[in-house]
Amino acid sequence: MAGVSGCVKYSMFTFNFLFWLCGILILALAIWVRVSSDSQEVLNSTDLGSSSYVAVNILIAVGAIIMILGFLGCCGAIKESRCMLLLFFIGLLLILLLQVAAGILGAVFKSESDRIINETLRENTKLLSTTEESAKQFQQAMAEFQKEFKCCGLINGAADWGNNFQQYPNLCDCLDTQRPCQYNGKLVYQESCISSIRDFLVKNLIIVIGIAFGLAVIEILGLVFSMVLYCQIGNK
Predict the structure, then answer these.
(1) Secondary-structure percent of the chain, ordered helix, strand, coil, rounded to 5
(2) DSSP codes, 212-236
(3) Disulfide pairs (predicted)?
(4) Which of 159, 154, 207 is nearest to 183 (CA)?
């Protein structure tokens, strides 16, 4: 019995240490996004800026909570504290239920989220042609995005930039002679960036789903080991 208990104890410690590391990773990534100058430009430049900040702040809170739970699990396993193990189990179960609920809501409202993304992109098209100072950051970020993904404009190509097309040097300049079109006497990329942005969001969504799935596996293992250890400590 003691050997089984020791095996469960150190397995519990190992999985909680991994869980604690996941919390550190999430927290560090969220803080980096929050304070990074490049991220600040993107977060401040869109109409969803405040919502983006809320999402980043939620990630910071989630990372901190996972770190605390990982610490409780590690200490509860090493010290064989039933109180710590029970707190860990309850907290971890709540996080797992929230992840499941978020996944279900994401699947149910996928079409709605696609509609919101399309509407947001169409609304942000106006920022490319405006001369307001508040839109400058978004225009600069968009110019960099176009250069990296070899596209031009959000919806209607170079025409989305309106009179601002001449304000940025080398804007949408196409170096690939097989894919250019002509606009205002310049060779520019003919593809708009809306498809590149969608692909970018899908790729990042796949990464998020993968991370969430990996966390869920660790969480389930943590729940099993914590309850087994909790029961074994009570039987001593």
Answers:
(1) 80, 5, 15
(2) HHHHHHHHHHHHHHHHHHHHHHHT-
(3) 152-172
(4) 159
**Beta pairing, strands 180-183 & 186-189:** antiparallel
Element (H, E) at 38: helix 37-45
Give the orientation angle of helix 194-234 with respect to helix 136-149, to 10 degrees: 90
Place of tokens 């200490």: 75
Where does 109-189 have alpha helices with state H? 110-129, 136-149
Rounded to whole angstroms, the Cα distance separating 63 from 95 reads: 11
- Which 8-state DSSP code applies to residue 169? T
User: pLDDT tens, 167-223?
Assistant: 776 777 776 655 556 666 677 787 888 888 888 777 777 777 777 788 788 788 878
Q: Which residues contact 13 (CB under 8 A, 6 or more apart)?
A: 73, 74, 77, 78
Closest alpha carbon to 144 in 179, 170, 181, 118: 170
Residue 29 burial class via C-beta count within 10 angstroms: exposed 0-12, middle 13-18, buried 19 and up: middle
